[in-house]
Amino acid sequence: MLSSLGLLATPFAFDSFSPSSNKARTLSSTSNHQLAKQLAVESRRGSRKLLGRYVFPFNSVYGKVSHGSLISAVLVDDSSTMTSSEEDAENIGILGVDSALEPFKDHFLYRVKKYVDQKNLFEKHEGGLEEFAKGYLKFGFNREEGGIVYREWAPAAQEAQVIGDFNGWDGSNHKMEKNQFGVWSIKIPDSGGNPAIPHNSRVKFRFKHGDGVWVDRIPAWIKYATVDSTRFGAPYDAVHWDPPPSERYEFKYPCPPKPKAPRIYEAHVGMSSSEPCINSYREFADDVLPRIWANNYTTVQLMAVMEHSYYASFGYHVTNFFAVSSRSGTPEDLKYLIDKAHSLGLQVLMDVVHSHASNNVTDGLNGFDVGQSSQDSYFHSGESGYHKLWDSRLFNYGNWEVLRFLLSNLRWWLEAFKFDGFRFDGVTSMLYHHHGINMGFTGDYNEYFSEATDVDAVVYLMLANSLIHSILPDATVIAEDVSGMPGLGRPVSEGGTGFDYRLAMAIPDKWIDYLKNKNDEEWSMKDISRSLTNRRQTEKCISYAESHDQAIVGDKTIAFLIMDKEMYSGMSCLTDASPTVERGIALHKMIHFITMALGGEGYLNFMGNEFGHPEWIDFPREGNGWSYEKCRRQWSLVDTEHLRYKFMNAFDRAMNALDDKFSFLSSTKQILSSCSEEDQVVVFERGDLVFVFNFHPKNTYDGYKVGCDLPGKYRVALDSDAWEFGGHGRVGHDVDHFTSPEGIPGVPETNFNNRPNSFIVLSPARTCVAWKCTQVPT
């Protein structure tokens, strides 16, 4: 999503650091340091200007359905004491991880105190964070004794009604009542022992705003929304979803354990069909999940799950946050998909969008904004509430009811659908008031901790990660952030934001730059290696060579960039491969493998890229005649035995299997021993494996000396040049390679490339080989 921001990926933000490298950091300017200090001082004083807000007594926001519930709002100055002592509060653990953050201690104190105070307020007035995040049990439509109760937060409404199929869209007999917190409610008694609002019937919230105009809106907490696909541009309808027990999907399989290092398959259900149509959740479960499992992935990341009226938004312009996208089926169908994934041992992550909301009025959350103040809205008012590049609305993360809505949204997807975690989209836009627009992040720490930082958003993310890991300790939570803010991937208990992983977003940009702008002979091994290892060692990254961003219309995937039109005519095994196809398949394997092995602590691949899917993704639109032809996955390409796509797919499967066997992704041992610009060879160790990548377009090196840690006997663990991967079988797999000692043990400067042992290998041009130690001398 952030590729559309005009952001420049920081070259230093993910830099590996050690205490000795702190001097290289640009430290705080006096003005920013003083600002942070002032914020912290005012925070300790309980400044109403900075922290004050209206909060509500425990459960009082729900009020009573009957008229006359009077509970006063309480103005709290947020000067409540922290749960730990003042000394403990000032001991921010993250400062011990990176001492270069010390000048920004006041900033961390301020946001940690704000986080703790917010949790204390939840505890005092709502029963705690986890109870607060059960808003879906009160808001929206819920069964209560003797009827259905509907509640909606709409402070700007002057009058309100609930309308739908059940009352002939006439709300005169179903007027709602408003409490002092702006929450409208009504109880609709059962009729003849049956719910007054039938399951799968349409409903809407009708209200009159300050101009005296009545408008109809989709309820904010609706669980399902549909559209008449036969009518062009038809608005969405809210649907009351409460199936009888016989129609509810019951989960059969437990959530799988959290993998040591996730190997993620990013997928879009709608475009996963081989036919030019929108695929269903059940078809994806039955047809695509087995492919993902067969290729040894551990995790599925689903895009476009939350309802979005504009299909071509890739699911990022969300209109209904609690509703599954009805294009692919019902909530029960999505549950079937997730349960099927769990039966295969696959975790399922959801691409959650809490960074912004669709600008749509008739069918989106924006319809509740009728010009009121930010305090009474889900969004900031004025320019602060609008994203100019995305044409979307921006949440006010300091608002009590916005926090309830978003935190409850996370719990809803975890509890109701058994998701195993989230990939948070657009985190950079959340972290800063400038939203990262036209920013070139350089790694200067002042860029991360200043008046430009949206502390309310940071605190929300801390609360979100705390909630997720409290409900589901084995959850995996990933941040899509291009800025490189330090601490994003450190625990909340240390003063970090709490994500498990961050996406290594600079890596695909590097590959695109090389493929578009450099001849093969110009490829720099040091530059490539630096880009792959340029990350904060104490914060885990998910590496990827390409994702959905590189597959959309106007851009090209790696395979399509390299082979272009020859993918249409030169992929048959019945004829010799052209030099273009030969190069394309070789580099496709090498780029993905070195990205996986050197680029992070987890790996991600977008659906179809594992076999070099040709062409770009082009969603149906007026410009292409509303065609689905290029909004699908041509699985037949990889299934056809005589086409070369099978080679790239087989290598992808083998890469994942290698990590299954040797767990190199989760290993903290990563040693880059050689980056030869002359040879165009990179040699490194990850875990117990030794990797040799020869990017030279022509030179094959016989008798190439490779440094290693363990002495003994080495054999091939994975070889991109093997026949089964479309190679030429030049490296012998049944040959033992014995090591020789190098220099004085324990004295790196006397060793070969600082490694105590070495062995000799054959390294053909444009190949990569992983070597395993099969025998260590006793």
Explain the overall architecture.
Pathway: Glycan biosynthesis; starch biosynthesis. GO terms for molecular function: 1,4-alpha-glucan branching enzyme activity; cation binding; hydrolase activity, hydrolyzing O-glycosyl compounds. Its EC number is 2.4.1.18. The active site is at 425 (nucleophile), 480 (proton donor). Helix content is 25%, strand content 20%. By secondary structure, it is of the alpha+beta class. α1 packs parallel to α5 (105-126). The relative contact order is 0.10. Strands 12-13-16-20-21-22-23-24 form an 8-stranded parallel barrel. The protein has 18 helices and 33 strands. The longest helix has 22 residues, at 105-126. β8 and β9 form a beta hairpin. It is globular and about 85 Å long.
Share of β-strand residues: 15-25%
Radius of gyration: 28 Å
Query: How are the strands of the largest sheet arranged?
Result: 12-13-16-20-21-22-23-24
* Outline: globular
Classified in CATH, the superfamily of the domain at 670-775 is Golgi alpha-mannosidase II
User: Uncertain regions: pLDDT < 50 for 5+ in a row?
Assistant: 2-88
Q: Give me the count of strands.
A: 33
Q: And the CATH topology of the domain at 670-775?
A: Immunoglobulin-like
What is the C-level CATH assignment of the domain at 670-775? Mainly Beta
Specify the number of helices. Answer: 18
Helix content: 10-25%
What does the average pLDDT come to?
88
Query: What is the SS-derived class?
Result: alpha+beta
Write the CATH architecture name of the domain at 670-775: Sandwich
The biggest sheet amounts to: 8 strands, parallel, barrel
Q: Gap between N and C termini, in Å?
A: 53 Å
Domain Glycosyl hydrolase family 13 catalytic: 284-655
InterPro entries: A-amylase/branching_C, Branching_enzy, GH, GH13_cat_dom, Glyco_hydro_13_N, Glyco_hydro_b, Ig-like_fold, Ig_E-set
Active site: 425, 480
Subunit structure: Monomer.
